Amino acid sequence: MTRPVLTVVGIGADGWPGVPDRLRDLVTSAEVVLGGERHLRLLPDVPDQVREAWPSPLRAGLPGLLERYGDRRVVALASGDPLVSGIGTTLVDLLGADAVRLEPAVSSVALARARLGWSAESSVLVSAVARDVRRVLRELAPGRRVLVLSSDATTPGDLAGLLAMSGWGDARLVVLGDLGAPEESRLDGTAAAWADEPPVVPDLNVVAVEVGEPEPGTPVTWAGGLPDDVFENDGQLTRRDLRAAALARLAPYPGALLWDVGAGAGSVGIEWMRAHPTCRTVAVEADPQRARRVRRNAGRLGVPDLRVVEGRAPDALAGLAAADATPDAVFVGGGATRPGVLEACLEALAPGGRLVVHGVTVETEALLARRYGALGGELTRISVETAAPIGTFSGFTPARAVTQWAWTKPHPSYLAADTTEETSS
User: In terms of residue numbers, what domain contains 181?
Assistant: First the structure.
């Protein structure tokens, strides 16, 4: 039996009176209505209609909920546009676009831009709804405009404190509350002022951030190779020049997944995620103290969603591969000589994926030379010298040379074609 199409109806801050008649009839004639408690309370009484709030946790409980009402006419309620950080995105991911019909209202984001005169192309959206507000930090640069979807009334104060603590206290903030409702409100302030005295605002709000100049020393770049001192570390850190060289060969792109094996301070995986909001990293680190340090660095540099797996490769990698977390790129910053590590990385890597391995010991260098001889790729020895005072003069101090092996996994079609050519010859 074919499952009926699930319809998702967006409701604005003006509530049930703002819903068009066509969609009101759709909601009141449904056998089952799903939604948040707030949305369900807005509806008029309908005899025999089943109404159920979203489960918690949402993603884990949704399949069972939808299966329970799979053969009935179901309508789901959402805030504004269901595809703007809303339930519509989750339902489409779960059921497929053909199984979900979306009926959006004007989103709070569109209303906020209209109130501020900000065009879509001149501003960026970050959602803090059920997400870590530190994600905003990645988007900051002088003159940048950021719209933040708040989780509740505490978000503006939390955001102000975060900005002030991170060197962006001059940022101008505007809280737009209950957008589209008769009680719509606006409150203006600065991050520095609100960090000391958080504003009282409605639960339903959007925060507009107009970024000013940062305090001296605040990192402002998306390029690979942040200064070493922005990473808390115990010496286990891929240094700036080597990190930039590694990232150039790892080649991050939107949506791609990196395994950062032997993460240390997490610098490579963190900068991978800073390249684009949809880039993902799984950092594998055996030392619990370093694993905690990776999490702190990731949050402070605007990528708190970075996933840390505490464990030693290759055993920890087996669990990742089993979870269908096929990496598009793998960086091995340490431990390459441990039996099975490189084999596990080579096996797990997606076709066309990039592997970059660093080594500083003679044993690791010999291993990488053998791999290069067998598989090809790019083998580079990188030496960095830095000027430092020598008495009243300056001289260059060399750091330990690092051998870097970079390799791209061939596609099966390429391997088949290559084998055919060898056979025919």
Answer: 109-210
Query: What string of H, E and C letters represents the secondary structure of the chain?
Result: CCCCCEEEEEECCCCHHHCCHHHHHHHHCCCEEEECHHHHHHCCCCCCCEEEECCCCHHHHHHHHHHHCCCCCEEEEEECCCCCCCHHHHHHHHHCHHHEEEECCCCHHHHHHHHHCCCHHHCEEEECCCCCHHHHHHHCCCCCEEEEECCCCCHHHHHHHHHHHCCCCCCEEEEEECCCCCCCEEEEEEHHHHHHCCCCCCCCEEEEEECCCCCCCCCCCCCCCCCHHHCCCCCCCCCHHHHHHHHHHHCCCCCCEEEEECCCCCHHHHHHHHCCCCCEEEEEECCHHHHHHHHHHHHHCCCCCCEEEECCCCHHHHHHHHCCCCCCEEEECCCCCCCCHHHHHHHHCCCCCEEEEEECCHHHHHHHHHHHHHHCCEEEEECCEEEEEECCEEEEEECCCEEEEEEECCCHHHHHHHHHHHHHC
Statement to judge: residues 34 and 182 lie in one domain: no
Q: Is residue 152 domain-resident?
A: yes
Does the reported pTM lie above 0.85?
yes
pLDDT tens for each residue of 273-295: 999 999 999 999 999 999 999 99
Are 10 and 102 found together in one domain?
yes
